[in-house]
Amino acid sequence: MKINGNQITPGMVIQHDGGLWAAVKTNAVKPGKGGAFNQVELKNLIDGRKLNERFRADETVERVRLEQKDFQFLYAEGDDLVFMDTATYDQITIATDFIGERAAFLQDGMTVTVEMHEERPIGVKLPDHVVLEIVEADPVVKGQTAASSYKPAKLENGLRVMVPPFIGTGERIVVDTNEVTYLRRAD
């Protein structure tokens, strides 16, 4: 679908210079002299490169719609992760590097959303929050106030987060997968 350069908004995926790019930031500029343009910060969905580009109102770009499918995480196999399409039961393999450090949050049977373009995975969206158990935490130091002090804790998946002093080993906590931060105790 063709759109004008001034219609690009953050989050939109476009085809540009032979690749798929996501608009990160946009800024409509109307200089005193010359025509208006849209200053767009783009991020390549395949290799992560960034690019700043100007699009005039009369330029057209191809907008790409990504297909979003639910997949269930099955298991890790070497450097690959195996997922199953919840609708068709087809399995796909995605490299662990593609998801990055957030792959540590994957749990057996977890449902994730995979964005696909022409049957090729472009991105994987994990649930925003996961419940994990603390396997190692420093003991409480008497006299510390809970207001501003946090202590390091190791989670069952090997990641470390900062937790309030009242959280101890063996407790289950809710962790934000985007920021990798402690949110609250699990119910």
Structural class: mainly beta
- Separation of termini? 46 Å
Largest sheet: 6 strands, antiparallel
In oligomeric terms, what are we looking at?
single chain
**Spatial order of the strands in the main sheet?**
1-6-2-3-4-5
Portion of residues within helices: under 10%
- Low-pLDDT parts are none
Percent range for β-strand residues? over 45%
The helix tally amounts to: 1
Radius of gyration: 22 Å
Mean pLDDT: 84
Number of strands: 16
Shape: flat
Q: What's the SSE pattern?
A: EEEEEEEEEHEEEEEEE
Question: Could you explain the architecture of this structure?
Answer:
The structure is a single chain. By secondary structure, the protein is mainly beta. It contains 1 helix and 16 strands. The longest helix is centred in the middle third of the chain and has 4 residues, at 96-99. Pathway: Protein biosynthesis; polypeptide chain elongation. Residues 130-185 form the Elongation factor P C-terminal domain. Belongs to the elongation factor P family.
